[in-house]
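Request: Not sure, any thoughts?
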Amino acid sequence: QVQVVESGGGLVQAGGSLRLSCAASGRTFSSYAMGWFRQAPGKEREFVAAISWNGGTIYYTDSVKGRFTISRDNAKKTVYLQMNSLKPEDTAVYYCACGPRILRSGSYYYPSEYDYWGQGTQVTVSS
């Protein structure tokens, strides 16, 4: 049974930073890509960042490039999302998900490419 658990969300002022963590178990963590998505109230879930099994390939959505950094520690079976220079529009529930073995350039941003999801962690950025 695969379990995915996010942590690290909270309330922060605009310009501040948060670091999200995601621990996954029940699967060979180091063999799979991982991704972060977010969903704001009234909006669809959107892709934020993804990282390949060895960290060699990373993708970001345009709105977070230069501000967010995804990384992973395969020994700890954990993936991180460092979020700096946060903006009110970053407010959302952030979800971590287990991805495919190989990230594909034409589909890494589709939620359907990810098969196990956490419950989400709330990030609120005040102005």
